[in-house]
Write a structure and sequence with these properties.
There is one protein chain. The protein has about 280 residues and is an alpha/beta fold. The protein is globular.
Length: about 280
Amino acid sequence: MADPNSTTAAKPRVVICIGDIHGYLAKLQNLWSNLQSVINPEEFSSALVIFLGDYCDRGPDTKKVIDFLLNLPSAYPNQKHVFLSGNHDLAFAAFLGVLPEPGNGASFKEGWKEYEVNEEREGWYKGAGYENMYLQGRRWAGTIKVRFNATKGTEYKGSIYDAGPTFESYGVPHGSADLMKVVPDEHKRFLADLVWVHEEENVCIESEEGIKHCKLIAVHAGLEKAKNVEEQLKFLKAKDTRVPKVEALSGRKNVWDIPKVMLHLPCVKHPSTLRQIWN
């Protein structure tokens, strides 16, 4: 415990937030190397590193990305690592059947009704194990009928989630039920243990008014604007799967402002530093 009469203020712990790796191992390794080069070694070795989710899909190396993340606690034992769930990870976990049950006698199947108008266009998964699968698992492993994503100007990679590369990283074709068998148990535990929200007290942030000590609430997409914060936190901590689409993990228009840069180093003064870390 710090001495309140001490004239030397304790240096704030470095907090690093990293979002949306999306199966790109080389980019993750490059980012990690650059972080080590710009942060004081002692501060880096004791940093709080919050991964904001979306570890899978789009890129070719989901399996290797999860291996990298699983190795961090042993490679950096003095760091604290937090692994949040993104909407892509939630869908991956849903397909593997590792999400918590909805409870209160409810079934995952009940969550299909609200969105079934999209079932044919999105080509929801109908293979082995689909009968009571959480909605996002069916969408994730489905086969999108319209191959071109007009919003992004790219081709869909298997499903509306671009999950094809994730299947391939484990050595099976997109949409194959064999994925449930070949994903290692430690990867299933990793996905099952992902938290939906993380709170951290007394985080140092540099603003125009100077250094501020704030409470950090980390969630993949953002808290919803029109809802009570405490109620949202309670729901997210409970990982309530009765809701077929979790807005805090996937919302865009109805969540609080999403930062353009998804990596934050408290007390870093120059935006150019952040650009150098990514490159």
